[in-house]
Amino acid sequence: MKHAVLSPDAPLSRFDERDIPFSRVRLRPGTPEYASYYAMRPENLGIDDEIRALPGLLSNGAALADPALFASAEGSFFLTEALHGAVDGPVSEERAPCDPQRMSEYLKSLALYYGARTVGVTELCPYHLYSHIGRDFSRYGEPIPFEPGFAIAFTVEMDERMVRSAPNAPAVMESGRQYVEAARIAVQLAATIRKMGYPARAHIDGNYRLVAPLVARDAGLGEIGRMGLLMTPRLGPRVRLGVVTTSLELVADRPTRDTTILDFCERCRKCADNCPARAIPAGDRTEIEGVLRWRIDGDACFRYWSTAGTDCARCMSVCPYSHKDNPAHNAVRWGIRRSALFRRAAVRLDDVFYGRRPTPRPGPPWIRVVSHPH
After folding, report:
1. What is the pLDDT along the chain (374 residues), one digit of tens a residue?
2. Its pTM surpasses 0.90
3. E-strand spans in 82-146?
4. Which of 216, 223, 256, 311 has the fewest CB neighbours in a 10 Å radius?
């Protein structure tokens, strides 16, 4: 197998999973993980202690607490965690014949059959993988070796009505539900590949070994927008991601960089204006690790999550790309892809029809029976 050629907008180094807020907030004084991490990153101790003192995600003491809806989200995250042990497994000794082109088409179609919205294949590059394990405390700090192979990346759609309630509880409820769907599809797909005689691993919430948005971008599913999330052409950031990696020989899709999405993000700035944590930059992209991108303040973002109790999603909810996938909005998307003048007009039109700072909408009526609006 050939080694993958680095993308021209590839980061120059791999990201350490130990540095993500989800890993850091779980560190406890007196543990070896706590000692080793803060010996390596002493500058993060004060920030992390401040966040650990807050109510926390899905806490009933949080500012936007809604016990019934939080319980639903907890149920979804419980199921995703229960699937952690199923991301990998034994490989069948009987190997099915493999034509890379036909197998690629079959597996992509299978992902869609299982419930994915979009799917693509990319050859793995070193920068796709984290450098060290950070969320699996049974293997905390272990280096993640790069092994050549392929990744099948896919999206699942988040319900537009639930997302529009962000940052209130229905949004985190939907987030949890779609993490389950992404995990289910990834686990099924990886198990199928192993049954055909080839190693495969699912990458799901809480048990990733790679940076899913980068993999999905290189598989042709979208671009990394101002808010740091994958921006898909039809649903914007209103998706969750799943990835399966395998040594099975596949044919990578040939993504073309969609500069119109990035240009729209340059002009729009709506996510930055509406971010409660002020974690999204309003300025231009800057060069970071050799790549032009917007630097998100992950600590500020997670601090707000730990105060509000939800995973916010306010940036996702106000994004013009997140509107429903229907003929009217698709006509706007068509114009955005074809004209810089239209992109400028589309930003203003979205403000006219939806407001520059739109008010969060209530969830569907059946939720409101037990929900506590804020």
Report:
1. 444 544 567 888 999 999 999 999 999 999 999 999 999 999 999 999 999 999 999 999 999 999 999 999 999 999 999 999 999 999 999 999 999 999 999 999 999 999 999 999 999 999 999 999 999 999 999 999 999 999 999 999 999 999 999 999 999 999 999 999 999 999 999 999 999 999 999 999 999 999 999 999 999 999 999 999 999 999 999 999 999 999 999 999 987 788 999 999 999 999 999 999 999 999 999 988 788 899 999 999 999 999 999 999 999 999 999 999 999 999 999 999 999 999 999 999 999 999 999 999 998 999 987 776 66
2. yes
3. 118-123
4. 256
- The identity of residue 218, as a single letter, is D
Dihedral (Cα; 13, 17, 22, 24), 10-degree rounding: -100
Count Cβ atoms below 10 Å from residue 93 Cβ, excluding itself: 6
**From residue 195, how far is each of 92, 111, 122, 251 by CA, in Å?**
5, 16, 22, 20
Amino acid symbol at 196: M
